[in-house]
Amino acid sequence: MPTPDPGPGEVRVRLSLSSVNPGDTKKRRGWLGSTMPYPRVVPHSDGAGYIDAVGEGIERTRVGEHVWVFGAQSYRALGTAAQFTVVPAWQAIGLPDSVEPELAACLGIPGITAHRAVLGDGAVAGKTVVVHGVLGGVGSLAAQLARWNGARVIGTVRTEADTGLARAHGTDNVVVLSDDEAVTHVRELAGGGVDRIVEVSFSDNINFDAAIAKNGTVIAAYGTREGHPKLPFWPMLFDNITVRLLGSDDFSQEAKSAAAVDLTEAASIGALSIAVGDAMPLDRVAEAHDRVDAGTRTRVLLQIPE
């Protein structure tokens, strides 16, 4: 394909790594009846590399800057599964020397979603945050961001076998959802109800969430198994619960930029870590998508050839 040129307000990034997210494979396979919005699509939203050209209105001093990229294929045709991508300049974030590009390439969709889930309703310092699916891509980053911001974190897992892994990843307070006393355990750890709930499966967990909430709790949900979930309306009403639904492509520029700043800062001081597998070559991109769809607890990266 021709090398793309940056337009006004844009930068071109020479990529070294491209991250594969579940959202990327969903777009590719027509999830929820979606269709290809362009005649040709280069997939993937997230990656890392350096700026090699800038468009009108962008200072040339940015050329050569190492960056991480998010949203490259959000309402655009040419994502990061290529040697070059073009994005609005604010979506190419300067990469400190202390941050490994493998980590940075994975921050976009899961990191910005996690940031919005944890901090979209204000700081959580001194508060208690429950993170469902704490071993997942978004859940793991949500737990780390909450701890970085000064919160007490309670992570949930589905089975007892996962508790050791969750603790090894830094979550000291772990609750198994299949335990009949799970609600009691959470309330004991929280000293009552919790302040924030980061929700990966709204339809499965909403009754549990209502039981651990207190007045003013925020439930931030970025996933659900059932498309039309039922909820215990009256208990939630009397607790004045806020339900925040999170669609990462359509967060405001202000929210995405704030998330990018915090993610970069947290990563630069070692507050964030992501389990990443060995990068696969770009010509194995179909296999990389299959690996993501099959389920993996390590992030899937593509190594972009020079």
Strand portion? 15-25%
What is the helix fraction of residues, given as a range?
25-40%
Q: Say how many strands there are.
A: 13
Indicate the overall shape. globular
Unreliable residue stretches: none
Q: In this structure, how is the largest beta sheet organized?
A: 7 strands, mixed
Secondary structure category: alpha/beta
Average pLDDT taken over every residue: 96
H and E string = EHEEEEHHEHEHEHEHEHEHEHE
Radius of gyration: 20 Å
The number of helices is 10
Q: CA-to-CA gap between the ends?
A: 15 Å
Please describe what this structure looks like.
This protein has ten helices and 13 strands. It has helices spanning 22-28, 101-104, 108-119, 137-148, 163-168, 182-190, 202-212, 233-238, 253-268, 285-294, and strands at residues 10-20, 46-54, 66-69, 84-88, 92-94, 128-131, 152-157, 173-176, 194-199, 213-221, 242-245, 280-281, 300-303. Strands 1, 2, 3, 4, 5, 12 and 13 form a seven-stranded mixed beta sheet that branches. Strand 10, helix 8 and strand 11 form a beta-alpha-beta unit. The two termini are 15 Å apart.
